[in-house]
Amino acid sequence: MRAGPLVVVAAGGALGSAARYGLAEAWPGPATGFPWATLVTNLIGCALLGALMRVVTTKTDAHPLVRPFLGTGVLGGFTTFSTYAVEARDLVAGGHLGPAAGYVLGTLAGALLAVRLGIWAAARWGQP
């Protein structure tokens, strides 16, 4: 394994995880409330990942470490499937079946839409 990609993924992951933590701290939800911070974090991350993938797959002069740093590192650290799964389980365990279903389905549909929106935005902002 080459050290370059590992180093940039680790550095990007540290930045993305710190950003996610900061957002969660700035927007704490009540213990039994809807996990808005995680939902918004994941949707933003999906939109940014869609835009990034549009850029790196259409731009021939993109540095080879851009995708591992930003995609796997920063955005992989920023988004969180594990927290999403725990929060969905907590909503179900607390008897909040409607909000749990909304969270699970809303995250899935929202994530797919956000990726598409990111691709569209990157195309509109000068990407071929």
From TrEMBL:
Positions of transmembrane segments: 34-53, 65-85, 100-123
Residues that, per the record, bind Na(+): G76, T79
Main localization of the protein described in the UniProt heading: membrane
Description of how activity is regulated: Na(+) is not transported, but it plays an essential structural role and its presence is essential for fluoride channel function.
Topology relative to the membrane: Multi-pass membrane protein
Signal peptide: none
InterPro entries per the UniProt record, alphabetical: FluC
Keywords: Cell membrane, Ion channel, Ion transport, Membrane, Metal-binding, Sodium, Transmembrane, Transmembrane helix, Transport
Compartments (UniProt record): Cell membrane
Any Pfam family matching the protein: CRCB
Catalysis: reaction(s): fluoride(in) = fluoride(out)
NCBIfam families: crcB
Family as reported in the entry's similarity comment: Belongs to the fluoride channel Fluc/FEX (TC 1.A.43) family.
Chain's role: Fluoride-specific ion channel. Important for reducing fluoride concentration in the cell, thus reducing its toxicity.
Protein name from the UniProt record: Fluoride-specific ion channel FluC
Origin species: Polymorphospora lycopeni
